[in-house]
Amino acid sequence: MSAGQVIKCKAAVAWEPGKPLVIEDVEVAPPKVHEVRIKIVATGVCHTDWECLYGTGKGMKFRPFPLVLGHEAAGVVESVGPEVTKFSPGDKVIPLFLPQCGECERCQSPKTNLCKKNWSNTQVGVLADGTSRISCKGQQVYQFLGVSSFSQYTVVPHTSLAKIKSDAPLDKVCLLGCGVSTGYGAAIKTAKVEKDSSCAVFGLGAVGLAAVMGCQAAGAKTIIGVDINPNKFAKARVFGTTECINPRDHPNKTIQEVLAEKTCGGVDYALECVGSPVIMTAALESTTDAWGTCVIAGWSETEAMNVVVEKILMGRTLKGTYFGGWKSVQDVPKLVDDYMKNKLKLDEFITHKLKLDQVNEAFDLLKSGESIRTVISLF
Fold first, then answer.
1. What kind and span of H or E run contains 41?
2. Which residues are in the Alcohol dehydrogenase-like N-terminal domain (predicted)?
């Protein structure tokens, strides 16, 4: 039994910003009080992982290095620390970068999913006691968002873990740990898209396609996908777009003008799934006055967007979403169930399957626009 012992395993370590990940032998310490050690079976590669490595100082706050990236994953409980009652070795689980303690004022409120348990610690890569459970060459290695799924084993707080069905395919449901949940929830939970409405989704990566899926599930009549990469359009139709627009095909008009013309004054809902302040402004301005709603799902930590006040005065709503508004511990298992009942697509997001030692290749595929999601097998 490995319980109580340090586990030696492989992980992709980011030694410094801007440099490719390196596969290293790491040590993963046993879980402390209220912690769970998990064997990661599959992990998605998300744009936020890339941004943390290559975009620090642009749209991302600086985080301490060395660190192990990865935050969209699924695995199996290896062992549990003291005072952990809800998990047992062998449970299938999805680690969560957004906790749900169930006890704080925010967890008690139906208005939000933003539990702040351990938040200031996990944001800088450490657990509740201020240290990480991963080390390499005698040095502490930080855990990105408290998760670090680019490691064969990791340790997470028990409030940052969702227990899922024992027959769930981990190489598919890992996508519910970030991108798919975020986009899908942005449409159905945060925007609250209504039947027969018109929607525009900006950015047709994993988050955007999941937003399209959410708009379709909500019964939207018009779903317009917007992306400068027309290679994404065929896939977008699979998820439910009724039309796709490449802004570069309209050099003399802004995309918000193009959308306003197409929809008699603007869409009912716009979902920004890129993380670009310029596109956020375009998304807001593409909605109709009186009741247009724009939801920002794209990630940026440091940049500001431009809002013309009159756009808001004339009845538009601008909202943000984090993890799609889902209360993580309770809602992720329900999303897994929806997938198992074919109410939710996951397989269609996966364009590439690679091994851990090909993780830098996965970043290249993401950045070039070739992949939607690469799923990495850790064993």
1. strand 35-44
2. 34-165
